[in-house]
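Appendix B, example 12.
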Amino acid sequence: MLALGTIAPEFSLLDTVSQKTMNLHTLNGEKGTVIMFICNHCPFVIHVNPEITRLSKDYQNRGIGFIAISSNDVENYPEDAPHYMRIKAKAENYTFPYLYDEHQEVAKKYDAACTPDFFLFDDELKLVYRGQLDDSRPGNGQPLNGKDLRDALDQLLSGKKNDSLQKPSIGCNIKWKPQV
């Protein structure tokens, strides 16, 4: 896992909605930034989509930027291709860019392992939280409420150090391209 305090690695990626190349420093929030690695087809992401949409709407007006990135191999997982990402973003009412990491370099820089995987950076782009959204999983009966990430966001916004246990994300592995 990426170490707490790590400065967010820079990137420039295609936003599948606007069809423009965007970078971290034009998308980061004034008070903090959530970077989430997601994809279209993973049942874990499909399960959390309603909450990440609610979460972004609850915190964007408080100075938090939200960025979604898909790094999956679209040759072997065509449902994660950029044109389908655009459709998914509109269907889910994403209020944040949904970027395509074609070469999977950004996922590697962030040590992203699965979808969904969440990273919260402060106003200086230092990592203050990495891990799960909450304890809810498809079919486990736990409420989908974003508790872990919401707690981290609230602590960041109130100027408190996040001493809470940070549980790793659980989901589908990122679909890496075959190594040649």
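The beta strands are 12-15, 21-23, 32-37, 64-70, 98-100, 114-115, 117-122, 127-131, 172-173. The chain is about 25% helix and 20% strand.
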